[in-house]
Amino acid sequence: MRIYHKAYVYLTCGNRLLVFDEPDTPELGLQVPGGTIDPGESYLIGARREFIEETGLNLDTAFAHFADQDLPLEIMAADGEVQAPLNRPLKGRHLRKLYHARIDTVPQEEWEHFEMSPSNGGPPIRFRLFWLDLHDPRAMDPAKFFAEFGAQLESLRQRIQGARP
Hints:
- By secondary structure, the protein is α+β, with helices and mostly antiparallel strands.
- About 15% of the residues lie in helices and about 35% in strands.
- The protein has helices spanning about 45-55, 135-140, 155-160, and strands spanning about 5-15, 15-20, 35, 65-75, 90-100, 110-115, 125-135.
- A hairpin with a 2-residue loop joins strand 1 and strand 2.
- The longest helix has 13 residues, at about 45-55.
- The protein starts with a strand and ends in a 6-residue tail after the last helix.
- The model is unreliable at about 80-85 (pLDDT under 50).
């Protein structure tokens, strides 16, 4: 099984989390910015680079490591059903480092951005980024998130307990 090193950023503003979906592949569900680490790149540097590539935001804020995930992934949708036509995520073992970053002010409520260099080498991917309250019903249901991105939300809620936008 091929191993992929990944880093993801859970950016919060108060009790809101930056998430995205892919309008052209809605079956994937909600995701957080991040992706594959380049050879020789640290997880932290990769997390920052991937965050900028996927959001268009270049933030001057600290990224604090808060969790790890070790996931064997097949090509699947948010509901766990195999989706052979999709060329993502990369099939194999995903070793993930998850980072938490905080900002005081939301730069935009919602926007679209294109990932121009997907890991699979395919065409650009359109993302619709927006802020999701961590107590919204979608955030309370990990199944609404793709590939275990929702699994750490309870831990994230505890990290920011008491924080309000």
